[in-house]
Amino acid sequence: MGIHAVSVMLEALNRDAQHATIAKFIQNELDAEREKVALLHQQGSQQAELLREQGAQQFELLRQQQAAAGGSMHSRRPETLKIDISKYRGSKKTPS
Questions:
Q1: Distance separating alpha carbons of residues 37 and 55, to the nearest angstrom
Q2: Which residues of 22-56 are buried (b: 16+ CB within 10 A; e: fewer)?
Q3: Fewer Cβ in 10 A, N or C end of the chain?
């Protein structure tokens, strides 16, 4: 509806009815905007919760991977040390 049509409609009303109509219109617009804000806030909260959950899952997965890698490195380490020691013993030159 155009501004001219609204103006004509309001002019047909007495002053109190004009104020009431304008107030009602503003209140309806405000209510609609509040609903949008509430919905956006709810969606933002849901997204934040999902991000927290994903972060916690990624952290736990990384922790498990590091624990598994640490355990496998620990089990191979003595063998690696024995090989390294024997290499160095064999290449050690005796002083003349």
A1: 27
A2: eeeeeeeeeeeeeeeeeeeeeeeeeeeeeeeeeee
A3: C
